[in-house]
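Journal club prep — side note

Before the paper discussion, L.F. wants everyone to see what a predicted structure for a comparable chain looks like in token form. Sequence:
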Amino acid sequence: MMNNRILAIDFGGKRTGLAVSDNLRLSANPLATVETKNLLASIIEYEYANEIKTFLIGQPKKNDGAAADIESKIQEFIKKLNKNFPEAEIIRHDERLTSIMAKQIILDTGYSKSQRRDKGLVDQHAALLILSEFIQSLPPQF
């Protein structure tokens, strides 16, 4: 079966959360949190083994709908992603409130106090929420 996975990216200044879908694009799972400075290398390594066809990148916005300050860094990263994966589809998805929702999910699901302090866990879950919302917006495949 052709690999049809989506890799979701919750881009951050220091850390970036990653989540990945299954081949049918029905479910999403947290993948990792990487230092943003190592993000492209991590994606290249992961993609080599998994043949990602679609990258879903969170689109942070301020409450008034304006682009968040980090958007220029995300645009720079997208250029690098395009250069390294010219055949891949790159999709943006509104990520407002995903970090707040991720913190609440972590609180509600019984992680230990030390796990709840792990900001990387929040980044992974934020990427997971971005991907889950996107998957739910896709038309049924059947």
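L.F.'s comment for the group: The chain has one domain: 6-137. Keep this in mind when we get to the figures.
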